[in-house]
Amino acid sequence: MEKEKIMSILEGAFDKGREAIPGGAVATYIPELGKADKNNLGLSICTKYGEHYNIGDTTTRFTIQSISKIISLALALEHMGVEKVFAKVGMEPSGEAFNSLVELDLNSNKPFNPMINSGALTVSSLLLPEFTFEQMTDYTRKVCLDPEIAINEAVFQSEMSHISRNRAIAYLLESKGIIETDVEGSLELYTKMCSLNVTAESLSNFGMILATGGINPKTGERVISGRTVAIIKTIMLTCGMYDGSGEFAVRVGIPTKSGVGGGLLSVVDDRMGIGVYGPSLDEKGNCIAGRPLLQHLSEELGLHIFNRSRF
């Protein structure tokens, strides 16, 4: 497909996303996130051939938030193995909000999946004895092809000052024998990972590596094992948009992970990675511009996971 045609489709998707922005609001439960401009919007695509297509605020730095759960899960699976990780956390959609502890306390002895806060805190507790935050930051830079990624101290301190709910979840996990390492250390590591600054371009790069099965096509280096990538993409499809994952899978059909900083990481298998930045969120905590924007791309480029069309 000609580049001009692709850019025309991107512009149409961008316009669809911008129309949805007024219906959302920036996250305010973390005060520092509430300072974001809700009208910002960026869309970045990186194809498996290394081609980049960008429109809008694609170089604006924002905190990765829950998209870091993908990175932590990848590191845990690579170094601890599937059985050890999923002995502590499940693989099923929860149907509850990302910061809920109801299903953990009433329905299960372990978190439903690694994409909700209870699951991500569990994964952090597994990583805590094995990796420093600096090592995990370096890994994030590697998979995002972005050496400038660093912690946003203001957001980190703001989150640590408003961490009561996550602290309650973490100590509940400890009481159930799920977290067996230092609870406060696990909370700090999780929060620091959420506070890393990325861009829409960073996320599209990471998505591209996941789309190519874990290989950086620019260098030929294997960055993540194929088995880990397959697990991650599956969980992104079923759980990546929290309790809106099912509808998103039907309408858009692209494995995607959201973060309350406004980021979206999407993976079109064997074709491209997509990064979106839009801090105006819907009621589920997902970028409100994301669904109409990605649905337009999916329909126009034939990107739905069960669509036989090819980009």
Describe the structure.
It is a single chain. With 311 residues, this protein is α+β, with helices and mostly antiparallel strands. It has 2 domains: 3-64 and 200-301, Beta-lactamase (3-Layer(aba) Sandwich); 66-194, DD-peptidase/beta-lactamase superfamily (Beta-lactamase), CATH 3.40.710.10. The protein is 46% helix and 11% strand. The chain contains 13 helices and 9 strands. It has a 5-stranded antiparallel sheet. It has a two-stranded antiparallel sheet with strand order 3-4. Strand 1 and strand 2 form a beta hairpin. The longest helix is centred in the first third of the chain and has 18 residues, at 3-20. The N and C termini lie close together (8 Å).
